[in-house]
Amino acid sequence: LFRVCTSYRIISNIVTLLKCVVRTAFVIVNNVYCIPTYVVWMMLLFPVKIYQPQVYWRIEGLFFHWLLAMVSMWTWSAGYDIIEQGDDIQKIISEKTLVIANHQSTGDVPILMTTFNAKPNVLPNLMWIMDRVFKFTNFGIVSILHQDFFIISGRKRREESLKQLQKHLKDSYIPRDRKWMVLFPEGGFLCKRRETSQKYAKKNNLPILENVTLPRVGAMQMIFDTLGPAENRNAEDQHLNSRPSLAVVNPEISWILDITIAYPQGKPLDLPTIITGSRPPCETVLFYRLFPSSVVPREPEQLSRWLYDRWVEKEVLLEHFYKHGSFLGTNGSNRGSTKVHQDPLRFLVLHLFFITSSYIHYSMLTYVLSCFW
């Protein structure tokens, strides 16, 4: 019996290793025939960007959604399901919304991409605020073309980065009529920031947190100074709606969507795990809370307190979830658990589109080169 069990474990390990190798190879190939062809399409559409920018950005949004659908497929095909709980967010799909979430690992972004992929019109009109390091990854060129924002961490360049964020909101978020904006206020992964956060909390008599870290308020403050309800913004920003180049009637943020990401047993998925599928299938739970932007204070100290209160609530929610497998504090206004479903046929069609596009672009390139050599 011992030999049988040993043999089974060896075979199981070999199968798992082969699966990881195959999935990794597929993801690499997937990147090769998706990202370059996206870039080529955007280059070919550049004249449209000049003469019909609204048409260009609508097309770009579709391509961006299709690319993120590829990432969603990695998560879905590995058996990493996503469960939604809390407030019903269907009513804000087309509203200007600031999404804030706790940040545990490199798996958070693919998890959110997978969730948003199943919701029409979210990803095409979404702007990510991410660490500048992601600008230099394979997906960086896509985020640059989509006009996401890369924030610079560190005290020395914080003020400069926040001014750049304000400029980006005025030059990109508003003119493109983006709807959702994703921000991780903690500014880093839980495992990297927990010790520093706790030291800061002890020094400043703030809550000492284990499952989340104290959020940073700078980026959120800048977003509300720029896009908050009109009566709470500076008069100098009131000219935004009257710019001749802008067709947006109301650039204001209407909602705050607070997402608490909870992984099973408190063990976060990371990007390598999602790519390889090395972890057994599991469920990640997203707990939603909606706040009208009008209830969020604008004064820096009060905004910090409001944001800290949300993160203390996350601490309690996650502690209960890790102990009991469910969130605490649900009430009658909350919907039940809903599993996020993906469309396999759509994945297939998108793969065929990107493969065909890559072949066409390769043929075009070889023809052009043949004219010179």
From TrEMBL:
Transmembrane segments: 21-43, 63-83, 347-369
Transmembrane helix in keyword set: yes
Stored SUPFAM superfamilies: Glycerol-3-phosphate (1)-acyltransferase (SSF69593)
GO CC annotation, single: endoplasmic reticulum
UniProt GO BP: phosphatidylinositol acyl-chain remodeling
Domain Phospholipid/glycerol acyltransferase stretches: 97-213
Annotated GO MF terms: acyltransferase activity
The keyword Acyltransferase appears for this protein: yes
Coiled coil: none
Domain of life: Eukaryota
InterPro entries in the record: Acyltransf_C (IPR032098), Plipid/glycerol_acylTrfase (IPR002123)
CDD domains listed in its UniProt record: LPLAT_LCLAT1-like
Keyword terms, alphabetized: Acyltransferase, Membrane, Transferase, Transmembrane, Transmembrane helix
Family of the protein in this entry: Belongs to the 1-acyl-sn-glycerol-3-phosphate acyltransferase family.
Protein name (database record): Acyl-CoA:lysophosphatidylglycerol acyltransferase 1
Organism of this sequence: Cyphomyrmex costatus
